[in-house]
Amino acid sequence: MWDFPLFPEQASTLAGWVDGVFFYGLGISVFFTTLICFLVIFFAVKYRRGSRADRSNPVTHNTTIEVLWIGIPLMLALVLFFASTFVYYHLIQYPADSSEIYVLGKQWMWEIQHPEGRREINTLHVAVGRPVRLTMTSQDVIHSFYIPAFRVKQDVVPGRYTSMWFQPTKPGTYHLFCAEYCGTLHSGMIGKIVVMEPAEYEAWLQSGTERESMAAEGERLFRQYGCSGCHGRNASVRAPLLDGVYGHSVALSDGRVVKADERYIRDSILLPGSQVVAGYDPVMPTFEGHINEGDLLKIIAYIKSIGNTERAGR
Ligand code: CUA
């Protein structure tokens, strides 16, 4: 059979909403384009040279028509504004119970890391009905993580973390595209999203050869890179303890108060001079060029994992 779908499947909780806004805008455009084309042709014919149309033009203005042609488009535009704001709000506001998965884009593949330890390339396994939040970064140029069936797309930018979330509603396999031209093999930077039943997903998570969680690997790297020499509990150098720091506010020496999120931790490692914690000397060396993106993500996962333990002062 001839199979040429104009639209991808709707396979996430927000897909229907995104389509709703899209079709509303499309409907308005089609309606007014048709109306204007019709009127252009109608008047061109009616007032063509030599026609006997009335050209005396006696009406100077008509308040009812003026109110309508201002009021109706205003209402249509406001509905579009509120509907798209509502959808955008839900697209960026991820649920608190989202599971977090890390994505690293590079020329020309997607590396995906589950916190439980499993890694995959150009394929992302998720469970149906469970919200997932992706924390993403790039090792080289800008890429864009695009899952048409979920109606989500987000730039993946070197030097910072971007995130997006979705909640799949149907088991199946869906397309994954890079949606930002990123070099010769951009068109080959594709993959698939595999949505599984939760039990199947759990079994899949356990089936890999990777036995260590991201946080455990991060803890090992934390020692290996020497972070624990200053930030550890028994360290001789005076540096802030990192237990419980994730997700909390941190006062900096320049008076700013920042939230300790992924970005803060990343910048603290790569650009330590840019945000010195109040009460400490700017003695931390930069790790720029000494640590790769994958290891950074693991160290961040480790610091997050000790984020819920009791905050210890020193
Ligand atoms: Cu990566 Cu285009």
What does this protein structure show overall?
The protein is an alpha+beta fold and 314 residues long. The protein folds into 3 domains: 15-49 and 61-92; 99-206, Sandwich (Immunoglobulin-like), CATH 2.60.40; 214-305, Orthogonal Bundle (Cytochrome Bc1 Complex, Chain D, domain 2), CATH 1.10.760.10. The chain is 34% helix and 20% strand. The protein is built from 7 helices and 12 strands. The protein has helices at 15-46, 63-92, 198-206, 214-224, 228-231, 262-270, 293-305; strands spanning 99-106, 109-113, 119-121, 123-127, 132-138, 143-147, 152-156, 162-166, 172-178, 191-196, 249-251, 257-259. The strands form 3 sheets. A 5-stranded mixed β-sheet has the order 3-2-1-5-8, covered by helices on one side. The protein is elongated. Dinuclear copper ion is lined by residues 105, 108, 143, 178, 180-182, 186, 189.
